[in-house]
Fold each of these.
Amino acid sequence: MASHETIPIQNSSSFLSTSTIVALCVFFALLCACIVIGHLLEENRWANESITALLLGLCAGAIVLLIEKGQDSRLLAFSEDLFFLYLLPPIIFNAGFQVKKKQFFKNFTTILLFGILGTVISFCLISLGAFLLFKRIGLTTLTLQQFLAIGAILSATDSVCTLQVLSQDETPFLYSIVFGEGVVNDATSIVLYNAVQSLNFNNIDATITLKLLGNFLYLFFTSTALGVVVSLLSAFVIKTLYFGRHSTDREVALMMLMAYLSYLLAELLNLSGILTVFFCGIVMSHYTWHNVTESSRITTKHAFATMSFIAETFIFVYVGMDAFDIEKWKGSNASAATSVTISATFFALVLIGRAAFVFPLANFINCIQKRDSNKIEFKQQFIMWWAGLMRGAVTIALSYNQFSNTKKISSSDSALMITCTIIVVLFSTIVCGSVTKPLIEAVLLRNRKTNVSDATDIPSLEEDLRQLFFENGDSSGQGNNQIAPRASSLRLLIAHPTITVHYLWRKFDDKFMRPVFGGRGFVPFVPGSPTGADDETSAAV
Amino acid sequence: MASHETIPIQNSSSFLSTSTIVALCVFFALLCACIVIGHLLEENRWANESITALLLGLCAGAIVLLIEKGQDSRLLAFSEDLFFLYLLPPIIFNAGFQVKKKQFFKNFTTILLFGILGTVISFCLISLGAFLLFKRIGLTTLTLQQFLAIGAILSATDSVCTLQVLSQDETPFLYSIVFGEGVVNDATSIVLYNAVQSLNFNNIDATITLKLLGNFLYLFFTSTALGVVVSLLSAFVIKTLYFGRHSTDREVALMMLMAYLSYLLAELLNLSGILTVFFCGIVMSHYTWHNVTESSRITTKHAFATMSFIAETFIFVYVGMDAFDIEKWKGSNASAATSVTISATFFALVLIGRAAFVFPLANFINCIQKRDSNKIEFKQQFIMWWAGLMRGAVTIALSYNQFSNTKKISSSDSALMITCTIIVVLFSTIVCGSVTKPLIEAVLLRNRKTNVSDATDIPSLEEDLRQLFFENGDSSGQGNNQIAPRASSLRLLIAHPTITVHYLWRKFDDKFMRPVFGGRGFVPFVPGSPTGADDETSAAV
């Protein structure tokens, strides 16, 4: 040991910058700690991994700040590139890969309504509220464009935390609505935010709404199509060349790389990478996953979940540490009272903005639903409202993007906007995150039997399908099996649109897609399926 | 679609820099192409994934250069951080994780001899050769320190390519020697390179060699110990808290994170991260891997292999693309003839430097080995010499580190050194990489029966062990089972050191390690073991 000290030899890390290694060490040690603590708190219903990570990140941030004696430390800086390029894609891909597809597509109309119209309503209300209230608080330097940006920033819900708080198994209906809304919300937020960035506010006319809607539809359909095309390509390549013959690793590598490539291509083509990679995950779990060897199936299922889990935990540690970035707090000259007032205003606007679309839209859906079992109860509406209140890393990233390099308003007001956004994110994640699980238990699961929609929607669907097959069996028995099913399908499409679409899709899948792209189709049970054994098994032919 | 064009809306990639996305897209598309082509060429014995990746990288580099019209492109730049922080650790960890442990430790003395003494011999010869020859070629600006650096740079063998070219199943002995040497070589190279960087050449005395040796030993033992400690900690935590109870993903995540953390800690403490993460992999596969659930075992086995595979392919694509970084070629004003002469000199020095230690050291080992079956035949020596000729990304990284920012010699000579290093790397990888497999088939496998050492070492070891247990059984039958085994162990230690160490280690493992850290011990067969079914099974108790 002594010899090491006396020889004037440089250290091996001369290849690497020490600050990078220190930062990585701290982050990875924190991640390990989060996993161990998360495991120990598993039985605790108030805590979860997100909150543990956030609190650990806050502690670490405070310690780093003390060590650095209040100096700026690059360790704490939030990087948009890191977040959007490396952390978000695995999370969203895994969500698509493990989502219960039938539940998701069954509620597709509701999801679209919430994700598009809901986000727009929330955006308008928050912008308007900020515009009316901030003048009174004393913030006068904000422009109209800034107010609209605030609306877009605070309308971006956090899909990551939703995934951790809601359980796909316990409350599949709520999960699919709130999470699905979060994914669609991303595309809407991007369109709104970018529109706000570039619209000419001196020249607003009525056609602008139509143009925005057109732009959204373009973004939605092209992003989805890209994800579907890339994943079908992966299914086709793996099926045709039969990679499993030589190596399991190549199959796994190809699935990972092509999933990530779909995200990168979407970003390159200026589409919504989140939508693309989400649909890529859905289609991959339907086709590609069934074309690979058994080992690859187990590996991909768990490896994708693990990567997503690490990325989620990383984001929360990161957001926690970022909160102590001293430069931001120095930049804003506002008093603590002003910061708290503005943060409270922000959060109140988020609460109202979400209430303003969840309850009306849910009741609107209830009105057009004929069947009682498909209606959304008030209790469920309440949980939908509450579970979507969390704001996360997307909000922080957008806030940095808007306010960190702006020259239009005073730098102190910019810093104030960023710090208040961080306060809202921390508050909503910690409070809403910890209260949601107990709230769901108290409101929904305690009187499970009365909760019709969440408990019985799968049996009711099964019943519908049995009806459908009974009718088809009838018509094919009469010999005219070419025309009669189509006629009955059309009739069914009007009576039960979702179920009929599902039935037609399955026929199409069996006839045209599966021969080319593989996949298991709709067989009753595949052990270790990424979406769980109960997915689609109830609809087994 | 038209609406998208007419609205003045910014695109979604405003959060991300376009150049990063383009670079990532190109790399990931190339990786996918490599996997598909590698699969199609699997039966071809001349080609392998490394060469495919290198050639694809070269093609892509040429195309990028054409598109950029000879301008500098950041797409092509080689980053030491990316290589040492993100690409190298998964490869070396996986090598440790999947290495056949018994074979590796059986040849440990040979590996150490080759890795330490061999690298030093090669370093001295290459430095001396460069010093004597380069003056004649016309390179006069190089200092003594530069010549020694060249020696260290060209002595760094490429473990990554070795892994791809040698097969652990076909030639386990060669694999363990050449790959093990590559891992130890890394620690030696770091010590040599850093010593060269910082030694004061005006004040060299005899004690410097001793000091360097002391420094190496310090580096070797602390790095190994760190890897062992971190992996034992992971085994202990996973065994004690029983993570599998709640979640497979946490187990997998914890294994990944702690493996990477061991590398980061080693770099932070100025140790050899490669040695640390390699031993971390070995110990993790012995203890931690057996403490997790069945799904986690399959997942980690394939996920680690896949990540390593992706990283390897990435490195070769990267090195290929980097070769066309036009700035370097512009910087060196030398004619094509000079470049070729220097590159040829480099490669000749590598050939001689390796020959100068492989053959003498192998014969030295043969002399001290009493048993004929343990001797290294000339054919094997030849393959050992040939298979270790490849130079890879480590050489390029060290070369950049040495010559890219130096102010001591003219910039044209620096650029010349870098470009010649790249030529040597490309040439050695393509030529040695493609010829090694057919060469092994022609030299070793054709007359498999005469190749005693590689074919029969496991049965002979088994015989030794049977002898050993027979003796122990005898002594315990006499009632003095406390003293007699120890006495016979001591006698055996002198007669058969490797086998006795192995036996003692197993007793220690069963008695003290396994109760604390778990692991399977030495049971005959574990399905899907990362080191293959035949590892340690022959020595089953």
Amino acid sequence: MIKTEPRLQELMTRLRVLPGVGLRTAQRMALHLLTASHRNDAHELAQALQSALDSIGNCRLCRMLTEDDVCTWCRSEERAEPAQICVVENYGDALAIEQTNYQGRYFVLQGCLSPLEGITPKDLGIDLFIQRVQEGGFKEVILATNLTVEGETTAHYLREQLAGMQLKISRIAQGVPMGGELGYMDGPTLGLALLDRRDCSH
Amino acid sequence: MIKTEPRLQELMTRLRVLPGVGLRTAQRMALHLLTASHRNDAHELAQALQSALDSIGNCRLCRMLTEDDVCTWCRSEERAEPAQICVVENYGDALAIEQTNYQGRYFVLQGCLSPLEGITPKDLGIDLFIQRVQEGGFKEVILATNLTVEGETTAHYLREQLAGMQLKISRIAQGVPMGGELGYMDGPTLGLALLDRRDCSH
């Protein structure tokens, strides 16, 4: 039966774009969504996804998700440390850091340097980042890429790009275990890692 | 930031309709789908879901998912046991049974009786099922609802509804599963397995 319903097959395939969803889970999800009692919810999910894709873009300044031209984090006048900018790999990492009372700005790379996957500085908007740092009047750049090999490589590359500019460059402390991903750290650990950031400008 | 993007909030909420997806996973999925490199896939997912909802309905005869009026399982002339009909709670159960070379027809209840959740015989299309059995010329009804309290209750109810009709009614066997170790089986299961022991003397 299932094999003869192309659109059901298609849905199962597409569901696998979701993180951590394999063949088995995708099938379970598809059958769940098409059950009579869940169809309204499923319809609203499709609408919500389409509407989010249509209306949510990236902040012109920090590449964070926003429905506007510039995100509220970049616009906000209330943030106590507007001269700090924290570079993270993805949205989730920024959200995790925001939980730690960090009061500066952000820049979201949307990934990290990876020659294997062909991810270049251009893909990470690093030129945009450098420009942002130059024009934003920042005094400190906090490198908060993951403590993975790619994250460290990216941080190292950013440090090189920022060399010679009149600002403090810091890296989150090694309070975060090697291989750990910021999105999954608990607040206290992450807060401590920010607190213990070490100066690496010289 | 996130809190100020209503459509992102909406997407996170809607993603929770997926089975086994909680707040944390929903957020992770939403951010993943909106990342630049995944937007095409996300768009295709939204399309696939909408298209499936629009085109896939229930088989008029067995309530299985199909794009047609009657599903291929009900239409098929090749099935060796067209006089058997197997009643299951949901699509996934039918798919699981189909893996076992079962050659009869199916009927999908899309749930099981649950006074607490207000699920009535009407919701399960049991009237449709009785009609199907009467008109389908079946010789055996196999009750394959889950071995849970609700499943057993539903099976019991179906048995009552079928009483007096000229056909064999059977229930899938309960016992120790393949590879099961007796030492780890619960008492009731083991007791029933002993009670339902089958003669293998010849």
Amino acid sequence: MALTAGRLAHVENREAWRPRFADCRARSEALAQHLLPEDQVVQSMPDVSPTKWHLAHVTWFWETFLLLPRLAGYRVFDPAYNHLFNSYYEAVGPRHPRPTRGLLSRPGVAEIARYRAHVTAAMERLIATADAATFRAIAPLIELGLAHEEQHQELILMDIKHVFAQNPLAPAYRTAPLRPARAAPALEWRDFAGGLVEIGHDGAGFAFDNEGPRHKVWLERFRLATRLVTNGEYLAFIADGGYRRLEFWLSDGWAAVQAQGWEAPLYWRRAPEKADGNERWSEFTLAGLVPLDPFAPVVHVSHYEADAFARWAGRRLPTEAEWETAAADLPVAGNFLDGGILHPSAPIADRLTPTLTLSDRDAPHPYPPPRGGRVREGVTADASDRANRDLSASLVPLLQIYGDCWEWTQSAYAPYPGFRAVEGAIGEYNGKFMSGQMVLKGGCAVTPAGHLRASYRNFFPPAARWCFGGIRLAEDG
Amino acid sequence: MALTAGRLAHVENREAWRPRFADCRARSEALAQHLLPEDQVVQSMPDVSPTKWHLAHVTWFWETFLLLPRLAGYRVFDPAYNHLFNSYYEAVGPRHPRPTRGLLSRPGVAEIARYRAHVTAAMERLIATADAATFRAIAPLIELGLAHEEQHQELILMDIKHVFAQNPLAPAYRTAPLRPARAAPALEWRDFAGGLVEIGHDGAGFAFDNEGPRHKVWLERFRLATRLVTNGEYLAFIADGGYRRLEFWLSDGWAAVQAQGWEAPLYWRRAPEKADGNERWSEFTLAGLVPLDPFAPVVHVSHYEADAFARWAGRRLPTEAEWETAAADLPVAGNFLDGGILHPSAPIADRLTPTLTLSDRDAPHPYPPPRGGRVREGVTADASDRANRDLSASLVPLLQIYGDCWEWTQSAYAPYPGFRAVEGAIGEYNGKFMSGQMVLKGGCAVTPAGHLRASYRNFFPPAARWCFGGIRLAEDG
Amino acid sequence: MALTAGRLAHVENREAWRPRFADCRARSEALAQHLLPEDQVVQSMPDVSPTKWHLAHVTWFWETFLLLPRLAGYRVFDPAYNHLFNSYYEAVGPRHPRPTRGLLSRPGVAEIARYRAHVTAAMERLIATADAATFRAIAPLIELGLAHEEQHQELILMDIKHVFAQNPLAPAYRTAPLRPARAAPALEWRDFAGGLVEIGHDGAGFAFDNEGPRHKVWLERFRLATRLVTNGEYLAFIADGGYRRLEFWLSDGWAAVQAQGWEAPLYWRRAPEKADGNERWSEFTLAGLVPLDPFAPVVHVSHYEADAFARWAGRRLPTEAEWETAAADLPVAGNFLDGGILHPSAPIADRLTPTLTLSDRDAPHPYPPPRGGRVREGVTADASDRANRDLSASLVPLLQIYGDCWEWTQSAYAPYPGFRAVEGAIGEYNGKFMSGQMVLKGGCAVTPAGHLRASYRNFFPPAARWCFGGIRLAEDG
Amino acid sequence: MALTAGRLAHVENREAWRPRFADCRARSEALAQHLLPEDQVVQSMPDVSPTKWHLAHVTWFWETFLLLPRLAGYRVFDPAYNHLFNSYYEAVGPRHPRPTRGLLSRPGVAEIARYRAHVTAAMERLIATADAATFRAIAPLIELGLAHEEQHQELILMDIKHVFAQNPLAPAYRTAPLRPARAAPALEWRDFAGGLVEIGHDGAGFAFDNEGPRHKVWLERFRLATRLVTNGEYLAFIADGGYRRLEFWLSDGWAAVQAQGWEAPLYWRRAPEKADGNERWSEFTLAGLVPLDPFAPVVHVSHYEADAFARWAGRRLPTEAEWETAAADLPVAGNFLDGGILHPSAPIADRLTPTLTLSDRDAPHPYPPPRGGRVREGVTADASDRANRDLSASLVPLLQIYGDCWEWTQSAYAPYPGFRAVEGAIGEYNGKFMSGQMVLKGGCAVTPAGHLRASYRNFFPPAARWCFGGIRLAEDG
């Protein structure tokens, strides 16, 4: 997630900002409070940053964009930090600093805590003492700074999970166990009529600039699965040779499978075979290594895996516009960071999915052919059925749209028509990631509640697996 | 360009097929007739294939999909060729054969000529002797085979150009000199009203399957430049620090610039400095090394470079749908392979672009700000002017839409709504390249005439430079 | 330095072992006492190990080879540590654990301190309580374990220096400043008569097995420089284009210069140019970044650089046998770890080297041609002079033979005639590094005093620079 | 093999030179006469050069070092060839031309034949017309040029074998079949007394400069195997887990086994399993793919494999000095290029080795323990037997010392004491390969007869397998 600056709402009631600011800063620190200093240094791959780097970088943002230009007499904590904690720094030449963040043991954790306290206190002074004109000017930047720090709260958890996963001791981030598995809802399909719709942020409230402008898109009829794909369903894909059968994969995806030896989602571990096939696997979570829950959503798959799974299931991934249209009227609620679970889980539902017995090779394919189209098995639906279908009869509820897993779409991350990056340093790089990445929607179990919107566009390269990516299926209507 | 099978027209008049088939086969052989056997072995990078491999691979297609299943008593020329010349072969394991095509000296050029003659004769027998039912069944495959061989005719020239470019002796593929430079037309802008349009192939005549289904797209108002960007204009970008200024580049593009040391288009060579800046550069062409023509279209730039140039010019690249809408009513004519020039050139025009004197640093920026929007320099156009503009007054002609250069769009190569790959081996990989690549439109100076359509979708990864990619600018309307 | 087991002396007086063991364990811990936990996790390159890994690995040695087989009732501290801290572990397959030691934040520093205390106490119990026969059997293993832990004491300092050097803040390991620079002794040459000599360990006292068997070697007459090459002399090599002139370099060395962009020794930093050339450089040391001392020995050069320097100076590096012959009668004393300087420095001497003024390009070449041979400049000495030379007149003292810098030899690390590796796990890998590495002699400023012998053979690949490698010149006699 | 210039014999009888020169030039051309032009372009890995490059490069040598400086009025054939065919050219910067030799299709084979004829004629003119003083000056250079062209004759065959081996069609270089297998001689051991010996070239006749100076070396008693290791014996090593058992391998060798997936010598191909274990393998030779001959010497193993095999057999490789001492009095005769076999083969002998039945797992280990030392199995010989052994009784003949396979030694390639490179361009790089390579002795089945001497030092990196490296075992005496 790159930092992007949006069309910011003016919020002039400074009393409202004080607790929001204080809560946000405190939440960042709370996320690290059970970690050792040793944990906070490690960078387990170039895309991961150490915990202490995140804690310092978000602090550098406040210092650089708010305190230095706006708080008279502000004393910079340490001038060297501008180089160390500026993620915008672009090395011209052969050495890129990003992959080397894990080589820096200093400043240590205690020193960074002092840096945070210094900047937090100064920000509280600025909020309390800025005159009205200044406050109007900085309020949008405070909102942006909070959204930025929230993004890094999610990254702290994504990244420390990857760090701990490298360790044969499988350390747990949270000490409480995960809640017991419960059956997943039955898989159903919700119809949408399509037509000329509008997507993108409408300007009410905060948004990053990549969410706009709001614009028209033509959609054909489509259907979305009412819940996320489960681990049990994904196991059926694996058991059916999913990772060995070229025909399901995009060309670049197949190359990634071969080059990286993928055989399962990122954090799955194959245990010695048992009689009951469901228990062959365990999954590394922020609560440590646990038996794989067949009803929980599959998570930590790449776009390539999500796409291959969908092809195996005779479906496809939704487009960004389909997803946003479906989500437009739903409340932004779900399994987010604040719930404390820190892992996707099956929602409560009336109709449940039957227990999968994967060692039973005669079990029915979990995905029967779609009503309206050709599927892998060659079944063709009755066209008249399709024409006469009553969309209103299909209003089964959509579950897990927000929270649990970021949902991979089939849409490449690209500028919306009329998109303009914000001027200046904050917006300098807004559009520069709009190449080679795919859009994900809806947030996940480590996203701070309140951070999401229907128009929110997350993006990662199609091979990325350490973000909490999951799968919702779609099909033509 | 991957082989893709389309909705094929039934053409039952077999007499029409004989000369088309014979001409196509003869053209492939003519393309290699001035090459040495030594030239036809070399693979200068993994994406390039040796000439003799192309000549054999298209022959393998006829043998595998037409002769073996349809011609009674057909004798396979050499069973080993199925492995050597099957581009569909996917190595499971660490060794991919594609980058090693250049290691195979055998079968030699003479042997492959015998293979071609054997297959051509058998195909002529099949066309002459098939009963009516068989002929109806194979006519679409013949059409597909011809389109396939035409694609490889273009690849033969793309690839041998790259091979010769590695050689310090700079060998020429064609011995006739390029035609003298002539001034480029003045750069103008053509307005389009947008709205709910349809794109994609409508089913009349042959098309590859990725061109359909035809479908609705909503477009905002937009403008297209009336001609391609010239070498002279691209030189201004270089002179203005284009390759050294991070702010113009997509993040992945900047990484490519650094990693590969790009400083100019692929085949430009910097000669020792002269007083007249325009003559510092030469360009390697299929006619050998020639002085850079400032009026000819810039070619052999990557998508990253095209995008960075557009950003520098205060514009953007067109979308696939914008381009296709603009091209819909134009005749498919231009500087194609059959004209024999084999290099993009300035079209004949009334109003000419002024001579650029790049050594004159006070020369005006070649791209004045657009009428309707913000540009790099911060100029804002008069909104009322925009609202009242008379589109009909803007019907300046679009030049170079077909031929000269493949035009990079800003659209990622993705399936159209409702896209289905053809069943079976021919369609096995139709969709598998729909990830990580960008769409190009319009054909180029080495594309066989008759091969193109408005709906034709070419695609290459954004870093590819050896395809004949050029730049047409667009802007919001 | 690989662990190697030697022909061990029987030392049956167990009272002598107690303080040696306790002192050795305490010294390891003292080396880490001023480091933060954050410092002790970082692995700055694959060859470097984190401090806490070293502290745990040497402890694992005692547990595995002494306590488990010999101390009745010993309780393993944590069974998982055998995998984490066993440097002998060889992954069969694509993942080598060594480069990933820096990814393991757990067990943390405090936990490893508990591990050390547990093992130290058990070892003290074993030493105190073993019966006489057992003690005779384990005394050689204790001696080996002490030598092993001493090796890792040196590695802790080598490695943390490399870690800190990556940090733009340039943290200092030791807080006291280095001692002021003093003039280096004048460079003189000591003659040796050669003949049939013996080298290798003679069996008295402890040695690693690679130091034997003692064996005969024929040596021609040779000369050794009386002191190490200084930074000032190495600056003259750089100023003379040393890193840009192919003719001085071994082929693989030149490839390393190009591939890694070497322009100076590993820890030199070029400061902005000043009027006085000597002050352009600073050097990162364990006391932080200090101005380069022109009289101190050059250190942290690879074998390739040492060899290139020698060729530039018209000399060569000594062979292993020459060095050992020269050192045979000298006391093992010098600038070692226990002196606390932790950096090479100029020895006290009567005749001093003149101050180099490197900005003066007319200064004399610091290395006049050798008496007895051809040099770069083509000077040939008088042969009669050579024949009649009185060796006894040449008995100028050899300085810095021990301590300061490990001295690169021109000898590849190879087995001595009749060499046999020790049987079993301890000796399993004794000979396996005898390929592709070069021998270094004499110890350095971070080698524990008492660890060295004339027969001691250190070895590193010729491109290694983070070991404290320096240069002593030799020439034919 | 790098070009090295030696102390050249003066040979003033110019009539003797004419046929030597003509024969040498003709032999180079004969080696390529059955190749297609396509074959002569391919470079199958960076270490391999195309046939036509070799033919041009040796020609460039004559033009550059003889014709240009010595033949009045000589006209350079093409000035561009100095860049293309100068192996001494060292790119300063990121692009090394060597791996790109295979990208140059021009000049073609016919053009290079014209280049050769032009230079051959001029050289014949020079030899015929030079005045006496000139001829004395150039005779050593002619001798060097002939030795140089002979080296490249061997390289042409080494390299084209590697090229053909990449091709699934397995083309044969020579059309005649290999001679039928015959039983190998029994393995016996020849004793040598060691002592103070002399090795190196003594100055009589031509030698490369790396062969001198002649110098003293002390050798302990040793034994050499009387013949090379056979394929059958190497199969026993493989069957015993040789490539999977870490304990036999040097550390760098084990890394190469893992990284490159070695399971057998370079050109062995595993056929589908049969009842008789000996027939599971075939071997690619210059006569094409043939069943593996268990009695022929194993060839195309790296130094790492040779060393691992020796350790498995309880022996070691000989040192360079041991080999040269043993070979000193033997005639230089054997299976060389001129015999036309082009592959190692078993020599004729009285006592034959018994047939190995590798599918019989109870077969005796082919290498019983050595008389005088510890072996893998822990057997110790009677020391008194060793002391009293009568060396004269052990004068069994040494077979295959010359020809068949280059014999890997355990000696790193290093300068002899007192070595000086020749001055000037010819000697520029003489010593620069004396790092990271191992010495091989004795020539092989594609070395021109007359090219070898006892003092000849070939050298390759320890991982190289495409040179014809084989194994002779040694043990301590």
